[in-house]
Design goal:
Family: Belongs to the peptidase M16 family.
Radius of gyration: 24 Å
Helix content: 40-55%
Number of domains: 2
Protein name: M16 family metallopeptidase
CATH topology of the largest domain: Cytochrome Bc1 Complex, Chain A, domain 1
Number of strands: 11
Keywords: Hydrolase, Metalloprotease, Protease, Signal
Largest sheet: 6 strands, mixed
Structural class: alpha+beta
Organism: Falsiroseomonas tokyonensis
Pfam family, one: Peptidase_M16_C
Strand order of the largest sheet: 1-2-6-3-5-4
Distance between the termini: 52 Å
Order of helices and strands: HHHEEEHHEEHHHHHEHEEHHEEHHHHHHE
Strand content: 15-25%
CATH architecture of the largest domain: 2-Layer Sandwich
CATH class of the largest domain: Alpha Beta
Amino acid sequence: MTCLTRRAALQAAAAAAAIAGTTPEALAQAAAAPPPSAAALAERPLFGATLRTLPNGLRVAHVEQRRAPVVAHYAYVAAGGGEDPPGLSGIAHYLEHMLFKGSSRVASGEFSRRVAREGGNDNAFTSRDVTGYFQHVEASRLDLVAMMEADRFASALIPAAEMESERQVILEERAQRTGSSPRALFFEEFAAAMWGRQHWHGRPIIGWEEEIRAIRHEDLMAFFRARYAPGNAVLVVAGAVDGPAFWDEITEHWGAVPAGPAVPRDRAPPPREIPIPRLVKNDPRLRGEATFIRSWQAPTLTAGETRHADPLEVLRHLLGGGQGSRLHRALVEGGLALAVGASYDGDTASWGDFDIAVTPRREVPPERVEQAAMAEVKRLLDEGGPTEAEVARSIRQLSAGALLALDGLGAAPRMIGGALAVGLPIEAVEFWPRRIRAVTRDQVAAAAVTVLGQAPSASGWLLPEGVQAPAEVRV
């Protein structure tokens, strides 16, 4: 009996998507056949989406998935917290809340009630790059949610009479998520210290409290009229609906939204000098462990030296991507930290950051933790980059992880919609495993030098009251 490894199971899951709906005999033959190679899987599109642009400028992607009789309907506006005007941080998020206050064909609060009555669920979110609205419903209810969402984009009421009550909801959300959490406050202050309090990357997505209070009704209306246009939006629908029927329904509702152009993102470049390169905060409410962070300005697929974006994804994984990574071996297995991690996202609009974060053990002095973490970064640079084996391992794990996206109904809309909304082609998602497999050790080494060795950076400590921060360690 052949041993079924985790990797083989992932390959089989990917293969199953291609044979769904066939006969039991065909399924049995596919199960008996050897799984396709990782290289073969990397050559396939992850989702096989169909992309069209309606006459009004709306880009629409359709992913047919037949594993359950449901659909996921995601509408994205190519404007998030990064597009908030100066002095009005949080306006994109505020507007997201107000778009549940009714439109020409749907009363205030009725949108979510209708979806719930149909057994579905809906919500919305604001990131730095996009504002998104989504619904998961039974497949035959696509017509309903498409009608309501298109109507919301075309004729949202945004009633002034409901603005103050919603402002209080947002302020309470900020108080609960940020104000009550020492770590959330620290990370908010750290972003402002590194990028600048009024830089688009340094402002909190939910907004500074005083600026949330300053947003007026006319500000919301101006943002809505400028940004909520078909040419500045993306619609992605995944699920059990045939192509012809899908395009008929989407064209009927979304094609009726008045045309409007794409709106260029006017984002400032990174500051040449970090405003506050070292941030130390002692919080008396902190009862748990301290936090150490270092962050470097980093290029992405849309800004700076874009050739480094994919190698930085691999670098992030091998440096701080869980067990087996360099930082995990040195700090967690070395008994200095409870947790470590590295983060980087190349699929963003404009510049990004490459971060490492450490949660030390309580009994370990902060200076030992910072020295050990930065020693790993320095060792990586001094050795001329990672080894071939490290790069190969990270690529294998990253590629295998991409296959998990095939199982979630909302994965295709989130990944495709997010990429299209920041200006990336759909191939950036469909063939992401192939791109990652093409990354070489030398490319990872070059990206490490460019970012970890040369880019402006900031560091910070969040510590309990009375604990002194160590001297800064730089590579």
